[in-house]
Specification:
two-stranded antiparallel sheet, 227 residues, 2 strands
Length: 227
């Protein structure tokens, strides 16, 4: 089954992140909250989902820019942890994610007598970004080819077919499991990839987990081939 040739090959697509400054800066947590309420959704995207594209190897303990700034620059580790556990993939759209971030900061501030403010650290500079798809010209016709290409391609390909597919295209399982299931009939492998935890990982780790799962299937297929 794993060497079955797909009727529609998997076309690998990478991406570029076009980013720019908004000209908005927060010096304390109250300002951070007020600006988040007003910024365009492309800025919410940059500071949450885009974090993983910019930190391909190490996501760190605070896997979004808001959490990192609160914990590192303001030394408010409590807010950093509260923001850090927000999984952007649990929300259907960016507006819902923005609302949860706002509620988290607002509830946190309601319990403080003094608003944490920058003294020696760096203020929060709001950015925004858009993702531009870039074709790699590479395509896989079976699972072996898929595994080989995935292991050598740019990490932005992993990002585009998972993060972008889930958020922008509304494909909650991502492109990889969808193709493996519908084109190769490998339903168990597709389900296993779908259940990998994106948020508690990084692009390279996620790529390696997919390759490992595919390798198990390919190895079993090889063992079952007639001598």
């Amino acid at each position: 089954m794993s060497l079955k040739k797909a009727e529609n090959p998997f076309a690998f697509t990478g991406c570029w992140e076009l980013k720019g400054m908004l000209g908005r800066t927060a010096w304390d947590e109250r300002q951070l909250l007020e600006i988040i309420e007003e910024i365009p959704l492309d800025s919410v995207y940059y500071h949450t989902h885009g974090f993983f594209l910019r930190h391909q190897h190490i996501a760190g303990p605070y896997p979004n820019d808001f959490a990192t700034w609160a914990a590192i620059q303001l030394r408010d580790h409590v807010l950093g942890e509260k923001l850090g556990i927000l999984d952007p993939f649990e929300y259907d759209n960016l507006e819902s994610l923005r609302g949860e971030i706002i509620n988290t900061i607002d509830n946190h501030l309601s319990r403080l007598q003094v608003i944490p403010r920058i003294i020696y650290g760096e203020p929060f500079h709001f950015m925004q970004s858009r993702i531009i798809a870039v074709s790699t010209g590479l395509a896989a016709h079976n699972l072996a080819e898929f595994c080989h290409i995935l292991s050598a391609t740019d990490a932005s390909v992993v990002y585009f077919h998972t993060f972008e597919a889930m958020l922008r295209l509304g494909r909650r399982e991502g492109d990889f499991p969808f193709w493996i299931k519908t084109q190769l009939g490998e339903t168990e492998l597709a389900a296993a990839i779908s259940h990998l935890d994106l948020y508690m990982s990084n692009l390279e780790s996620f790529r390696n987990q997919i390759i490992t799962l595919c390798g198990v299937v390919l190895e079993k297929e090889g063992e079952n081939e007639p001598a």
